[in-house]
């Protein structure tokens, strides 16, 4: 047998996280993760579970009983949502206007569903007329849309209109709110969303591992009346209901430390106030956007669809996005990301999320980005960008 590996102390770099996630974590959340473990059925943990559920309802703006943190990353919450409400033989309508609509489609197919699409170009939201036409043509059982498309920096407007169209056709609505929860306006009940899933590592500024999910009674009725079980035992909500519902019966060992972290992150949301938090994100991202535009660069999304939590910035002509991203990481310990799919090489994706949405971070980002772009020969005005950002902060 081989000798034990010699591994030193854990010393990751101290980055400033301004990419599409994760975001910087509030020190209070990190402290919560260092508190003692208890059992996943300990009476004290059951009380914590109750608190997390109440805090999630506040943050989702819902009264849904079936509101839980799924044990796993945001993709686990996504698969729990789609894999439970889409049954074999169901048809799911998904969007084509970003990377994560494609992931919805893949999960629906794996759940045994048939996938049909409502088309819109990358960088544009879905139009209600296109959604209505798709419903008339395909009569889907489930409609999925991305409220905040992380790949394009586009926020979907007219949500109530879209959900109204779906409900007129007796379809359930599943909303991807991974990059919107806790950062931009999201009103699950008021907007008629039946199922919403999210990730904790973006605007909630919480390490990944326990991911928000909410279902209304109509959606949960469909889950509980399925003719055959969901294909994933681990993510079967009819079984998880026993643990997160009234019984608190064993299903699996919950990620206790991650639930602690999510509880503290949601406490921070409640202390700030959800509406105030939405406004802070808009103000901080507005300062970032002002700086980018003053430098001479363009946003990918028009102002009416702009997503404050994820700013997609067009890469200046003659500049290699990968070089800029690498230099920011190597020279400034600053993380941003490049484009995905159809926008690969075309945009920078700059997050302004949660604990990262602070004047210090925004100022640092604009100054560092301007300096690197100028050094790479981009036709930009770094000083004007820094000045415009400072004026907005």
Characterization of this structure:
The protein has 393 residues and is α/β, with parallel strands linked by helices. The protein has 2 domains: 27-271, Aspartate Aminotransferase, domain 2 (3-Layer(aba) Sandwich); 274-392, Alpha-Beta Complex (Aspartate Aminotransferase, domain 1). The protein has 13 helices and 14 strands. The chain has helices spanning 27-33, 43-60, 74-85, 99-110, 128-138, 159-168, 217-224, 237-244, 256-272, 274-295, 321-332, 359-375, 382-392, and strands at residues 16-17, 66-72, 91-95, 114-118, 142-146, 148-149, 154-155, 172-176, 195-197, 209-215, 310-314, 334-335, 337-338, 347-351. It has a 7-stranded mixed β-sheet, with helices on both faces. A hairpin with an 8-residue loop joins strand 13 and strand 14 (347-351). The mean pLDDT is 97.
Search tags:
393 residues, alpha/beta, Aspartate Aminotransferase, domain 2, Aspartate Aminotransferase, domain 1, seven-stranded mixed sheet, 14 strands, alanine-glyoxylate transaminase activity, pyridoxal phosphate, L-serine-pyruvate transaminase activity
The termini sit apart by: 59 Å
Largest sheet: 7 strands, mixed
The best one-word shape is globular
So, CATH architecture of the largest domain? Answer: 3-Layer(aba) Sandwich
Structurally, how many domains make up the residues?
2
CATH C-level of the largest domain: Alpha Beta
- Any low-confidence stretches, pLDDT <50, length ≥5? none
The Cα radius of gyration reads 21 Å
**Number of H/I helices:** 13
- Helix-strand sequence: EHHEHEHEHEEEHEEEHHHHEHEEEHH
CATH topology of the largest domain: Aspartate Aminotransferase, domain 2
Helix content: 40-55%
Count every beta strand, where a strand is a DSSP E run of 2 or more residues. Answer: 14
* Average pLDDT reading: 97
């Amino acid at each position: 047998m081989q000798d034990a590996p010699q591994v030193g102390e854990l010393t990751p770099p101290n980055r400033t996280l301004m990419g599409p996630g994760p975001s910087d974590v509030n020190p209070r959340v990190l402290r919560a993760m260092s508190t003692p473990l208890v059992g996943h059925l300990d009476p004290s943990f059951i009380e914590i579970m109750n608190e997390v559920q109440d805090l999630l309802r506040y943050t989702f703006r819902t009264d849904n009983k079936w509101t839980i943190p799924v044990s796993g990353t945001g993709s686990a919450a996504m698969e729990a949502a789609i894999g439970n409400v889409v049954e074999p033989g169901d048809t799911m309508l998904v969007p084509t206007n970003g990377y994560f609509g494609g992931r919805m489609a893949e999960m629906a197919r794996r759940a045994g569903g048939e996938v049909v699409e409502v088309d819109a170009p990358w960088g544009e939201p879905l139009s209600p007329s296109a959604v209505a036409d798709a419903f008339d043509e395909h009569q889907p059982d489930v409609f999925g849309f991305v409220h905040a498309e992380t790949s394009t920096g586009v926020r979907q407007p007219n949500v109530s209109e879209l959900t109204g169209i779906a409900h007129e056709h007796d379809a359930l609505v599943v909303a991807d709110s991974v990059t919107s929860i806790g950062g931009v306006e999201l009103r699950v009940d008021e907007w008629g969303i039946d199922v919403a899933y999210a990730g904790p590592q973006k605007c909630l500024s919480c390490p990944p591992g326990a991911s928000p999910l909410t279902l209304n009674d109509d959606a949960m009725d469909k889950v509980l009346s399925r003719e055959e079980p969901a294909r994933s035992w681990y993510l079967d909500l009819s079984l998880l209901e026993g643990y997160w519902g009234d019984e608190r019966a064993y299903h699996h060992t919950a990620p206790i430390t991650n639930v602690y972290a999510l509880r503290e992150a949601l406490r921070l949301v409640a202390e700030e106030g959800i509406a105030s938090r939405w406004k802070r994100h808009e103000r901080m991202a507005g300062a970032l956007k002002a700086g980018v535009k003053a430098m001479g660069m363009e946003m990918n999304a028009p102002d009416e669809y702009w997503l404050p939590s994820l700013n997609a910035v067009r890469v200046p002509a003659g500049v290699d996005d990968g070089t800029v991203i690498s230099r920011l990481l190597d020279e400034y310990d600053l993380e941003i990301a490049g484009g995905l799919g159809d926008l690969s090489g075309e945009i920078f994706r700059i997050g302004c999320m949660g604990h990262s949405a602070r004047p210090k971070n925004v100022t640092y980002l604009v100054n560092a980005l301007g300096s690197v772009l100028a050094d790479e020969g981009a036709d930009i005005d770094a000083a004007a960008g820094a000045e415009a950002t400072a004026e907005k902060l």
